[in-house]
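If you are new to this repository, start here. Below is one unmodified record pulled from the training split, so you can see the exact layout before writing a loader.
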Amino acid sequence: MKKHIIYLLILGFALLSNMTLTSCSDSDVANANDVLMVNAVLPTKVMEGQVVTITGTGLEKTISVVFPGNVSVNNIIKIGNGYISVITPAGISAEGGTVTIEANGESAESVMTLTVGKPEPLRVAPLDKEIKINECVEVYGNDLEFITKAYFPGEDGKDIVVDASNFKRKATGSLYIYSPMGIKAGPAQVTLEDCSGKKYTLPEVTLSDEVAGGSEGGEGYASIWEGEYTTGWWWYLPASELDLSAITPEAGQTIKFTFTHHDAPQTFCLCDGWWGAPFIRDGGESGNNIVLAAGEDFLEFKISEGMAATMNGTETALIIGGDITITKIQIKTD
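And here is the target side for that same chain:
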Protein backbone atom coordinates (compact mmCIF):
# COMPACT_ATOMS: atom_id res chain seq x y z
CA MET A 1 0.00 0.00 0.00
CA LYS A 2 2.82 2.37 0.90
CA LYS A 3 4.57 1.68 -2.41
CA HIS A 4 1.30 2.32 -4.25
CA ILE A 5 0.83 5.70 -2.54
CA ILE A 6 4.42 6.74 -3.32
CA TYR A 7 3.91 5.75 -6.97
CA LEU A 8 0.74 7.86 -7.23
CA LEU A 9 2.49 10.84 -5.64
CA ILE A 10 5.39 10.60 -8.12
CA LEU A 11 3.03 10.25 -11.07
CA GLY A 12 0.99 13.28 -9.98
CA PHE A 13 4.10 15.38 -9.48
CA ALA A 14 5.36 14.46 -12.95
CA LEU A 15 2.07 15.40 -14.60
CA LEU A 16 1.92 18.71 -12.71
CA SER A 17 5.52 19.51 -13.66
CA ASN A 18 4.85 18.78 -17.34
CA MET A 19 1.76 21.01 -17.34
CA THR A 20 3.69 23.80 -15.64
CA LEU A 21 6.63 23.57 -18.06
CA THR A 22 4.35 23.47 -21.09
CA SER A 23 2.39 26.46 -19.89
CA CYS A 24 5.54 28.46 -19.19
CA SER A 25 7.01 27.54 -22.60
CA ASP A 26 3.91 28.65 -24.52
CA SER A 27 3.70 31.86 -22.53
CA ASP A 28 7.38 32.62 -23.09
CA VAL A 29 6.99 32.24 -26.86
CA ALA A 30 3.90 34.43 -26.93
CA ASN A 31 5.57 37.08 -24.81
CA ALA A 32 8.75 37.00 -26.89
CA ASN A 33 6.80 37.54 -30.11
CA ASP A 34 4.94 40.45 -28.52
CA VAL A 35 8.07 42.33 -27.39
CA LEU A 36 8.78 45.35 -29.56
CA MET A 37 12.23 44.79 -30.98
CA VAL A 38 14.21 45.72 -34.11
CA ASN A 39 16.43 42.95 -35.46
CA ALA A 40 17.56 44.44 -38.77
CA VAL A 41 17.11 47.43 -41.04
CA LEU A 42 17.81 46.95 -44.76
CA PRO A 43 19.39 48.52 -46.66
CA THR A 44 21.75 50.29 -44.29
CA LYS A 45 22.64 53.01 -46.79
CA VAL A 46 19.58 55.04 -47.73
CA MET A 47 18.34 58.23 -49.28
CA GLU A 48 15.01 59.97 -49.77
CA GLY A 49 12.49 57.93 -51.73
CA GLN A 50 14.02 54.53 -51.04
CA VAL A 51 12.05 51.64 -49.54
CA VAL A 52 13.44 50.43 -46.20
CA THR A 53 12.48 47.08 -44.69
CA ILE A 54 12.60 46.53 -40.93
CA THR A 55 12.47 43.11 -39.28
CA GLY A 56 11.87 42.27 -35.63
CA THR A 57 9.12 41.32 -33.20
CA GLY A 58 5.96 43.12 -32.15
CA LEU A 59 6.11 45.25 -35.29
CA GLU A 60 2.41 44.83 -36.01
CA LYS A 61 1.87 47.43 -33.25
CA THR A 62 4.05 50.06 -34.93
CA ILE A 63 2.49 53.48 -35.43
CA SER A 64 5.59 55.39 -36.55
CA VAL A 65 9.21 54.96 -37.62
CA VAL A 66 11.65 57.68 -36.60
CA PHE A 67 14.67 58.18 -38.86
CA PRO A 68 17.93 59.93 -37.94
CA GLY A 69 17.31 63.63 -37.35
CA ASN A 70 14.02 62.85 -35.57
CA VAL A 71 12.10 62.59 -38.86
CA SER A 72 8.98 60.52 -38.32
CA VAL A 73 7.08 58.42 -40.89
CA ASN A 74 3.54 57.26 -40.16
CA ASN A 75 2.70 55.71 -43.55
CA ILE A 76 3.73 52.14 -42.82
CA ILE A 77 3.21 49.14 -45.11
CA LYS A 78 2.92 45.97 -43.04
CA ILE A 79 4.41 43.07 -44.95
CA GLY A 80 3.67 40.48 -42.31
CA ASN A 81 4.27 39.55 -38.72
CA GLY A 82 7.83 40.59 -38.09
CA TYR A 83 8.22 42.70 -41.26
CA ILE A 84 7.29 46.28 -42.11
CA SER A 85 8.43 48.67 -44.81
CA VAL A 86 8.48 52.44 -45.15
CA ILE A 87 9.67 55.01 -47.66
CA THR A 88 12.74 56.95 -46.55
CA PRO A 89 11.57 60.54 -45.95
CA ALA A 90 13.21 63.81 -46.88
CA GLY A 91 15.23 65.70 -44.30
CA ILE A 92 16.94 62.85 -42.46
CA SER A 93 20.26 63.71 -40.83
CA ALA A 94 23.21 63.61 -43.21
CA GLU A 95 25.28 62.05 -40.41
CA GLY A 96 22.95 59.06 -40.29
CA GLY A 97 22.11 57.18 -37.11
CA THR A 98 19.72 54.62 -35.70
CA VAL A 99 16.06 53.98 -36.47
CA THR A 100 13.43 53.97 -33.71
CA ILE A 101 10.10 52.14 -33.82
CA GLU A 102 7.24 53.63 -31.80
CA ALA A 103 4.10 51.72 -30.78
CA ASN A 104 1.49 52.73 -28.20
CA GLY A 105 3.88 54.19 -25.65
CA GLU A 106 6.64 51.69 -26.39
CA SER A 107 9.75 52.25 -28.48
CA ALA A 108 12.62 50.13 -29.78
CA GLU A 109 15.85 51.34 -31.35
CA SER A 110 17.90 49.55 -33.99
CA VAL A 111 21.37 48.36 -33.08
CA MET A 112 22.71 49.02 -36.56
CA THR A 113 23.03 52.56 -37.85
CA LEU A 114 21.95 53.98 -41.19
CA THR A 115 24.23 55.99 -43.41
CA VAL A 116 22.88 58.44 -45.94
CA GLY A 117 23.75 58.09 -49.62
CA LYS A 118 24.60 61.12 -51.71
CA PRO A 119 24.94 60.38 -55.44
CA GLU A 120 27.90 62.21 -56.91
CA PRO A 121 28.70 61.70 -60.60
CA LEU A 122 32.31 62.81 -61.06
CA ARG A 123 33.27 62.04 -64.64
CA VAL A 124 32.03 60.48 -67.86
CA ALA A 125 33.70 58.54 -70.65
CA PRO A 126 34.58 58.25 -73.43
CA LEU A 127 35.36 61.86 -74.29
CA ASP A 128 37.76 61.18 -77.17
CA LYS A 129 35.25 59.63 -79.60
CA GLU A 130 31.61 59.58 -80.59
CA ILE A 131 29.33 57.22 -78.67
CA LYS A 132 27.23 55.19 -81.10
CA ILE A 133 23.79 53.77 -80.44
CA ASN A 134 24.14 50.63 -78.25
CA GLU A 135 27.54 51.74 -77.00
CA CYS A 136 27.79 52.91 -73.41
CA VAL A 137 28.08 56.25 -71.73
CA GLU A 138 30.27 55.43 -68.74
CA VAL A 139 29.68 57.37 -65.53
CA TYR A 140 32.01 57.21 -62.52
CA GLY A 141 31.46 58.61 -59.05
CA ASN A 142 30.04 57.83 -55.62
CA ASP A 143 26.75 56.30 -54.42
CA LEU A 144 25.57 55.79 -58.00
CA GLU A 145 23.43 52.80 -56.98
CA PHE A 146 20.66 55.30 -56.19
CA ILE A 147 20.38 56.44 -59.83
CA THR A 148 17.09 55.24 -61.31
CA LYS A 149 16.93 56.89 -64.77
CA ALA A 150 19.00 58.49 -67.50
CA TYR A 151 17.71 61.09 -70.00
CA PHE A 152 19.17 61.38 -73.50
CA PRO A 153 18.26 64.24 -75.89
CA GLY A 154 16.06 62.88 -78.69
CA GLU A 155 16.09 63.86 -82.33
CA ASP A 156 12.44 64.92 -82.06
CA GLY A 157 13.24 67.39 -79.28
CA LYS A 158 11.92 65.14 -76.52
CA ASP A 159 14.08 63.32 -73.99
CA ILE A 160 14.51 59.55 -74.27
CA VAL A 161 14.29 57.95 -70.84
CA VAL A 162 16.42 54.90 -70.08
CA ASP A 163 15.35 53.08 -66.92
CA ALA A 164 18.08 51.73 -64.64
CA SER A 165 16.84 48.18 -65.26
CA ASN A 166 18.22 48.57 -68.79
CA PHE A 167 21.66 49.84 -67.78
CA LYS A 168 24.48 47.51 -68.72
CA ARG A 169 26.04 48.03 -65.29
CA LYS A 170 24.86 49.70 -62.10
CA ALA A 171 27.20 49.78 -59.11
CA THR A 172 28.03 52.22 -56.36
CA GLY A 173 31.07 53.53 -58.22
CA SER A 174 30.06 53.26 -61.87
CA LEU A 175 27.21 53.15 -64.39
CA TYR A 176 27.31 51.88 -67.96
CA ILE A 177 24.30 53.21 -69.86
CA TYR A 178 23.46 52.13 -73.40
CA SER A 179 22.90 55.01 -75.82
CA PRO A 180 19.34 54.38 -77.13
CA MET A 181 17.78 54.54 -80.57
CA GLY A 182 16.36 57.93 -81.56
CA ILE A 183 19.01 60.12 -79.92
CA LYS A 184 20.01 63.49 -81.35
CA ALA A 185 23.50 63.26 -82.85
CA GLY A 186 26.17 65.72 -81.77
CA PRO A 187 27.42 67.22 -78.50
CA ALA A 188 25.00 66.38 -75.70
CA GLN A 189 24.59 66.32 -71.95
CA VAL A 190 22.97 63.24 -70.48
CA THR A 191 20.96 63.79 -67.29
CA LEU A 192 20.65 61.30 -64.42
CA GLU A 193 17.85 61.05 -61.85
CA ASP A 194 18.02 59.44 -58.41
CA CYS A 195 15.26 57.78 -56.37
CA SER A 196 14.35 61.10 -54.71
CA GLY A 197 13.76 62.75 -58.10
CA LYS A 198 16.90 64.90 -57.99
CA LYS A 199 18.63 65.31 -61.36
CA TYR A 200 22.31 65.54 -62.28
CA THR A 201 23.50 66.96 -65.61
CA LEU A 202 26.64 65.20 -66.82
CA PRO A 203 29.59 66.75 -68.67
CA GLU A 204 29.22 66.94 -72.42
CA VAL A 205 29.81 63.90 -74.62
CA THR A 206 29.39 63.40 -78.35
CA LEU A 207 26.57 61.11 -79.45
CA SER A 208 26.29 59.46 -82.84
CA ASP A 209 23.12 58.21 -84.51
CA GLU A 210 25.11 55.39 -86.14
CA VAL A 211 24.24 51.97 -84.77
CA ALA A 212 27.22 50.07 -83.34
CA GLY A 213 27.96 47.00 -85.45
CA GLY A 214 25.94 48.30 -88.39
CA SER A 215 22.67 46.72 -87.26
CA GLU A 216 19.60 48.66 -88.26
CA GLY A 217 17.43 47.02 -85.65
CA GLY A 218 19.76 47.95 -82.84
CA GLU A 219 20.94 45.94 -79.90
CA GLY A 220 18.33 44.17 -77.83
CA TYR A 221 17.72 41.35 -75.42
CA ALA A 222 15.39 38.40 -75.46
CA SER A 223 14.05 37.55 -72.02
CA ILE A 224 14.22 33.82 -71.29
CA TRP A 225 13.19 33.89 -67.60
CA GLU A 226 11.46 36.45 -65.39
CA GLY A 227 10.32 36.25 -61.79
CA GLU A 228 11.92 36.64 -58.37
CA TYR A 229 14.04 33.85 -56.95
CA THR A 230 16.48 34.04 -54.04
CA THR A 231 19.18 31.48 -54.66
CA GLY A 232 20.05 30.55 -51.07
CA TRP A 233 22.25 27.47 -51.45
CA TRP A 234 21.61 25.98 -54.93
CA TRP A 235 18.84 26.68 -57.39
CA TYR A 236 18.37 23.98 -60.02
CA LEU A 237 16.67 25.97 -62.78
CA PRO A 238 14.76 23.52 -65.02
CA ALA A 239 15.07 23.89 -68.77
CA SER A 240 11.27 23.68 -68.91
CA GLU A 241 11.04 27.06 -67.13
CA LEU A 242 13.04 28.87 -69.83
CA ASP A 243 11.18 30.68 -72.60
CA LEU A 244 13.27 30.04 -75.71
CA SER A 245 10.60 31.03 -78.20
CA ALA A 246 12.51 34.15 -79.28
CA ILE A 247 16.09 32.87 -79.21
CA THR A 248 18.14 29.66 -79.07
CA PRO A 249 21.04 29.78 -76.60
CA GLU A 250 24.41 29.32 -78.31
CA ALA A 251 27.97 29.34 -77.03
CA GLY A 252 29.49 32.82 -77.30
CA GLN A 253 26.23 34.73 -76.93
CA THR A 254 26.01 37.29 -74.11
CA ILE A 255 23.74 36.38 -71.23
CA LYS A 256 22.52 39.00 -68.77
CA PHE A 257 21.36 38.39 -65.18
CA THR A 258 19.41 41.12 -63.38
CA PHE A 259 19.21 41.16 -59.57
CA THR A 260 17.25 43.03 -56.93
CA HIS A 261 19.12 46.04 -55.59
CA HIS A 262 21.64 45.27 -52.84
CA ASP A 263 23.74 47.69 -50.79
CA ALA A 264 26.28 45.12 -49.65
CA PRO A 265 28.52 42.75 -51.64
CA GLN A 266 26.76 39.51 -52.65
CA THR A 267 28.08 36.19 -53.91
CA PHE A 268 27.04 34.66 -57.23
CA CYS A 269 28.02 31.22 -58.49
CA LEU A 270 26.88 29.62 -61.76
CA CYS A 271 27.26 26.15 -63.26
CA ASP A 272 25.68 24.57 -66.29
CA GLY A 273 23.21 21.75 -65.69
CA TRP A 274 26.08 19.24 -65.61
CA TRP A 275 28.06 21.18 -62.96
CA GLY A 276 30.40 22.56 -65.60
CA ALA A 277 32.01 25.87 -64.65
CA PRO A 278 31.60 28.66 -67.23
CA PHE A 279 33.88 31.67 -66.98
CA ILE A 280 32.16 34.78 -65.64
CA ARG A 281 35.13 36.99 -64.77
CA ASP A 282 38.35 37.12 -62.80
CA GLY A 283 38.70 38.34 -59.24
CA GLY A 284 36.45 35.84 -57.43
CA GLU A 285 37.02 32.57 -55.65
CA SER A 286 37.01 31.05 -59.13
CA GLY A 287 36.00 32.09 -62.63
CA ASN A 288 32.39 31.03 -62.03
CA ASN A 289 32.14 32.02 -58.35
CA ILE A 290 32.36 35.78 -57.94
CA VAL A 291 31.41 38.64 -55.62
CA LEU A 292 29.03 41.31 -56.91
CA ALA A 293 29.91 44.76 -55.67
CA ALA A 294 27.40 46.77 -53.64
CA GLY A 295 24.80 48.09 -56.07
CA GLU A 296 25.99 45.87 -58.94
CA ASP A 297 22.52 44.84 -59.99
CA PHE A 298 23.35 43.48 -63.47
CA LEU A 299 25.88 41.00 -64.78
CA GLU A 300 26.83 40.05 -68.37
CA PHE A 301 29.15 37.32 -69.63
CA LYS A 302 29.46 34.79 -72.45
CA ILE A 303 27.44 31.57 -72.64
CA SER A 304 29.68 28.50 -72.45
CA GLU A 305 29.24 25.38 -74.56
CA GLY A 306 28.02 23.50 -71.50
CA MET A 307 25.44 26.19 -70.71
CA ALA A 308 24.17 26.18 -74.28
CA ALA A 309 23.78 22.40 -74.19
CA THR A 310 21.90 22.22 -70.88
CA MET A 311 19.75 25.31 -71.55
CA ASN A 312 18.57 23.64 -74.75
CA GLY A 313 18.08 20.31 -72.99
CA THR A 314 15.17 18.79 -71.11
CA GLU A 315 16.48 18.58 -67.55
CA THR A 316 18.39 21.11 -65.41
CA ALA A 317 19.36 24.17 -67.44
CA LEU A 318 21.49 26.04 -64.91
CA ILE A 319 22.64 25.57 -61.32
CA ILE A 320 22.88 28.88 -59.49
CA GLY A 321 24.20 29.54 -55.99
CA GLY A 322 25.08 32.44 -53.73
CA ASP A 323 23.01 34.88 -51.70
CA ILE A 324 21.33 36.97 -54.39
CA THR A 325 17.79 37.44 -55.72
CA ILE A 326 17.44 37.06 -59.49
CA THR A 327 14.61 38.83 -61.32
CA LYS A 328 15.46 38.37 -65.01
CA ILE A 329 17.66 36.35 -67.34
CA GLN A 330 18.15 37.63 -70.90
CA ILE A 331 20.24 36.84 -73.96
CA LYS A 332 21.58 39.57 -76.22
CA THR A 333 20.00 39.22 -79.64
CA ASP A 334 22.66 40.95 -81.76
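Two things worth knowing about this chain: Residues 1-26, 214-218 have pLDDT under 50 and may be disordered. The radius of gyration is 27 Å.
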